[in-house]
Design a protein that fits this description.
By secondary structure, the chain is of the alpha+beta class. The chain has 2 domains: 171 residues, Aminopeptidase (3-Layer(aba) Sandwich); 144 residues, Aminopeptidase. The protein has 12 helices and 16 strands. Strands 1, 2, 3, 4, 5, 6, 9 and 16 form an 8-stranded mixed sheet that branches. Strand 4, helix 5 and strand 5 form a beta-alpha-beta unit. The chain is globular. The two termini are 29 Å apart.
Length: 322
């Protein structure tokens, strides 16, 4: 690897022209290249994207030799707020692989984040985690669960599809649940906007049918589930659920059964600890993809990682995935 490498932001047009045609095979799914490019541009144009999202590249001279997407989030650990840098879509063009460019790029980003006062970096690894461990990342608990839909109660409840007017109630349920968690990623209005955009784009379920349901109590949202029906997997893939109180928590199993319909299973990431008690016992196993990994940069983040790892509980929803 040459010594004249630099790390800098990539403008949207350059990223669309030089990176996305190469990564489409990995991440476009069933979308056309045009659709893939347009949806990436939508992320950059939304309120969250304009303030908290960047595409970054490593240049060796004039050559773009590696790239990634950078997301800014805040993590609440007890009463502390920790600044977090999310790293996604790490990519090296085929002709530049094997030269250490990706390692150098991420090491430079960690150094830059540390200098900027960022407390931690995080990512969701789909490759051998030892690559990231060598850069200082720690693998956090990352598990998946599976439930037989017919083992859930067939309680009669009035279910409705989530519509645009329901999001305020969904956010309220989510925030009520967050009060009971020792740590979590903070969701600002801009983060919620970004999450909703990704759902409309079906970025996490390219082969599924988005199925988001709510239970209303009078005019308020009492409980909700977000996910997708995946007939090819005979499963409803759960992304997240929330509830307003203990009475509403009791309807989550029946709400999931309604979401599954004639599908055999409920699958997804293991829910966070504060919500898990709403579900019956499930089959649980370690995930092989999207392993949540964290590189603590500040003293406060190092203390949090030590405590969170020792607790051995999953702490992110799949809706936090980048």
């Amino acid at each position: 690897m040459a010594v004249n490498v630099t790390l800098r932001s990539i403008d949207a047009a350059t990223y669309a022209a030089e990176v996305l045609p190469l990564t489409a095979e990995l991440w476009a799914g069933e979308r056309s290249l045009h659709g893939y490019v347009e949806q990436t541009a939508q992320i950059a144009r939304c309120g969250y994207g304009r303030r908290h999202y960047r595409t970054v590249g490593l240049y060796d001279g004039a050559s773009l030799v590696a790239s990634f997407k950078r997301y800014e989030r805040t993590l609440r650990a007890g009463s502390q707020r920790l600044r977090a840098t999310g790293i996604g879509a790490v990519f090296t063009p085929r002709e530049f692989r094997g030269r250490g460019y990706a390692s150098a790029m991420l090491a430079m980003e960690l150094d830059r984040s540390l200098a900027d006062g960022v407390d931690l970096a995080f990512l969701f690894s789909d490759i051998e985690p030892r690559f990231y461990t060598s850069l200082g990342f720690v693998t956090m608990p990352s598990r998946s669960m599976s439930l037989r839909a017919d083992n859930l109660p067939a309680t009669r409840i009035e279910v409705a599809g989530l519509d645009g007017r329901d999001w305020i109630g969904v956010q309220r349920c989510f925030e009520l649940g967050e009060r009971h968690r020792p740590w979590a990623f903070v969701r600002t209005p801009l983060v919620w906007e970004w999450l909703r955009l990704r759902m409309r784009q079906a970025s996490e379920h390219r082969a599924g049918i988005e199925t988001n349901l709510v239970v209303r109590r009078r005019r308020a949202i009492a409980a909700y589930v977000l996910g997708a029906r995946a007939p090819h997997e005979d499963a409803y893939v759960l992304d997240e659920f929330g509830f307003a109180d203990g009475e509403a928590a009791a309807v989550i199993p029946a709400l999931l059964r309604s979401a599954a319909g004639d599908l055999r299973r409920i699958t997804g990431w293991l829910p966070v600890e504060s919500a898990r008690e709403a579900l019956p016992r499930a089959s649980v196993r370690k995930r092989t993809k999207a392993l949540f990994m964290v590189a603590p940069l500040s003293a406060a983040a190092k203390r949090w990682v030590k405590e969170a790892a020792a607790a051995n509980t999953d702490g992110v929803w799949s809706t936090d995935h980048i």
